[in-house]
Amino acid sequence: MLTVLAGGVGAARFLRGLLRVVPPERVTAVVNVGDDVTLHGLRICPDLDSITYTLAGLVHPVQQWGRADERFTVRDELTRLGDAPWFTLGDRDLALHLHRTGRLAAGATLSAVTADVARAHGLGLTLLPVTDDPVTTRIRTVDGRDLHFQEWWVRERAGADVAAVTFAGADAATPAPGVVEALATAEAVLVAPSNPVVSIGPVLAVPGVTAALAATPAPVVGVSPVIGGRVVRGMADRLLPAVGAVTSAAGVARWYGARRDGGLLDGWVIDTADAADLAELADLPLRTAATDTLMDDPDVAAALARTCLAVAGVTP
Amino acid sequence: MLTVLAGGVGAARFLRGLLRVVPPERVTAVVNVGDDVTLHGLRICPDLDSITYTLAGLVHPVQQWGRADERFTVRDELTRLGDAPWFTLGDRDLALHLHRTGRLAAGATLSAVTADVARAHGLGLTLLPVTDDPVTTRIRTVDGRDLHFQEWWVRERAGADVAAVTFAGADAATPAPGVVEALATAEAVLVAPSNPVVSIGPVLAVPGVTAALAATPAPVVGVSPVIGGRVVRGMADRLLPAVGAVTSAAGVARWYGARRDGGLLDGWVIDTADAADLAELADLPLRTAATDTLMDDPDVAAALARTCLAVAGVTP
């Protein structure tokens, strides 16, 4: 089993590449839930849904999240009611939120709902929320406010400077069924090029996950989300400084840390544009590679996945 | 103040007529919540919404509930997910459910949300849910099952014979703010031609409402939901026998009872097609009138409202 620690869009594109290289039944994604939010009574899981939509071929091709051919009748009606949602709520997307909310209200776990939704979309991989327990990424702003991640990111468009990032509930959370097994028995653990702070961070904040990662005999190989010294998309550049990390391919590797030093990584794959960063990492016990990591082309994503497997020493 | 005990469609049409006769600020509707249901995590209040849509001119002109120009993108997506809803969920209608659910989750009362929604739709009357507490109409079927009213009525299309109707939560419910005042200070209380058992029944099941109705100096005048010996729409004919009532204009009046005998009514307005029923009611201390009660034409509804006011002894 190849077990991928995953956020949203970047992970979705990485998984799409990996699934061109290995059969889906060999892939498990352990997905961030820190972004999840309840709005208008609906439970919304952006990272799980971005992965589902991308792998099912339903994703909006430009924005890379939400549905292609989306409609906004409900949003327009909410606006008419004076309750314009600050979070994008497309009609088709809403159906999934309604489905999930109804199942959760009836007592299903998030992991059970996620598995059924993946099956309904014809996905062959195993899709696991990192935990069925509530874990919420909170942003403490420099101006002293405590915001849900989505309030900071979507509602305020990341306008406020970040003082600290915390994962409410993480200390008490246990890994969802299958997560520890997927890490313990993996051929390799791959860390998708997702936001280290708010996509991978909440996954690593669940104590049982940290323990399983420390104990697994599998190599852990990450992909840099920084390309050419810059974040491809999202706001890692707003968040990395808040956690004391440098926004560079080397800086992120150093923040994750080498496994032999108590950190996460055995290997680190960066973009060729950042090849100079390899020298900065020479003191870390990491297997490294530099390749094309910009995954606009699924063939590039597939080649990136092959590189990761090579660094991990795993045959595709 | 003219205070109207109201269910859904029949009450909506009656109120539309009444609002042609008197200014809206003189009208308060006390609305059934027993039909309310939580589906897919959303709080749905069919009677409140039917009244709102009808009075705002948004109602579907044929079915008389839900929105005209409705769309069903969300429902179709839910169906694709294998979760086809048995309750009609139109896109525009969903927006109101989302709005309400979000506000309730944030701590607002149903009466506060209802007032705001009415205002957002430009309604001038006062729209009150009978209670902010949970009251749910349950149907016990002859085959021994205990169903939510909507499960029996919509999901099973009223297929099962009814052994008993109960209003779960009613005993502990208190009237919503304004309800007791609207009854105590009314010029007249009008009972809309709604289903006596499952539309008016849950309103009367709230102890504080019963007490306020017994104590009010205002005359209480009802309109028969039976026309020509038959129920115009809905399923009162399936339910009246279950509560020991006869499906006729006289039978419903007798089931409500005359106020001086401990019942509800001081007056009773029936359709001219049922004029023969008046003889059956001769022993009851009721002021009665027979007129056209089929409200397909709003002018007829307005004339019906005038007749009710005349029976109540109130000047329009």
Blueprint of the fold:
The structure is a homodimer of 316-residue chains.
Chain A: E1 2-6, H1 9-18, E2 27-31, E3 37-39, E4 42-44, H2 46-55, H3 73-80, H4 91-105, H5 110-120, E5 126-129, E6 136-141, E7 146-148, H6 149-155, E8 162-168, H7 179-184, E9 188-191, H8 196-204, H9 207-215, E10 220-223, E11 226-227, E12 230-231, H10 236-239, H11 249-256, E13 267-271, H12 277-280, E14 287-291, H13 298-312
Parallel strand pairs in A: 1-2, 1-9, 2-5, 9-10, 10-13, 13-14
Antiparallel strand pairs in A: 3-4, 6-7, 6-8, 11-12
Describe this entry's structure for a reader:
- Two copies of one chain form a homodimer.
- Helices cover 37% and strands 18% of the residues of chain A.
- Chain A has 316 residues and is of the alpha/beta class.
- Chain A has a single domain, classed as 3-Layer(aba) Sandwich (Rossmann fold), CATH 3.40.50.10680.
- In chain A, the strands form four sheets. A seven-stranded parallel β-sheet of chain A has the order 5-2-1-9-10-13-14. In chain A, strands 7-6-8 form a three-stranded antiparallel β-sheet.
- In chain A, a hairpin with a 2-residue loop joins strand 3 and strand 4.
- At the A-B interface, helix 3 and helix 4 of A face helix 3 and helix 4 of B.
Features:
7-stranded parallel beta sheet; 3-stranded antiparallel beta sheet; homodimer; 18% strand; 13 helices; alpha/beta; Rossmann fold; 316 residues
